[in-house]
Amino acid sequence: MPNLFDEWRADHESHRVLLAMIDSETDCERRFALFAYLARELCVHMAIEERTLYARLALGEATRRRAAHSILEHQDIEELLETFYAMDVEDPHWLRTFRVLRELIERHEAKEDEAVFRDAMENFDVEEASAMRRRCMQDQHRLSASVRHTA
């Protein structure tokens, strides 16, 4: 069975690829389409992490602070994502703001890859990680359908 944390790392890699594609895209319509896709993917990804990983890490005395900090970073990312829908993608400010978002996402996901997932692996047994993976897969289906209809 694939490791949940490896799957999340793979998601992070796909986010980095999309971020780079958006940053280098010169066609504004295509840039915004890529952005909208990334935004949906990020919202689902972050919601699943919060419902599973961070909900569990928040229970541990040693991991509670990291979980709270990561959830706050998710909120910052979500708030910044929303601002793009009110901006004109052809405005140079859009791309400058996108680069701020890119840095925020890449820094946050690097912390998850390097520290948060390590903490989780040290605190979860195999059975708990497997149950979390099953729940993530269920949430992925439900949330993906929900986000597609609202975005």
Strand content: under 5%
DSSP E strands, number: 0
Question: What is the number of domains?
Answer: 1
Helix content: over 70%
Shape: elongated
Order of helices and strands: HHHHH
Radius of gyration: 16 Å
**Alpha-beta classification:** mainly alpha
**Helical run tally:** 5
Distance between the termini: 32 Å
Extract low-pLDDT stretches.
none
Average of per-residue pLDDT values:
90
Quaternary: single chain
Sheet having the most strands:
none
Structure description:
This protein has one domain. It is 85% helix and 0% strand. It has 5 helices and no strands. The chain has helices spanning 4-24, 28-57, 64-83, 92-123, 126-150. The chain is elongated.
Map the helices and strands:
Layout: H1 4-24, H2 28-57, H3 64-83, H4 92-123, H5 126-150
Summarize the structure.
By secondary structure, the protein is mostly helical.
Salient structural properties:
151 residues; mainly alpha; 85% helix
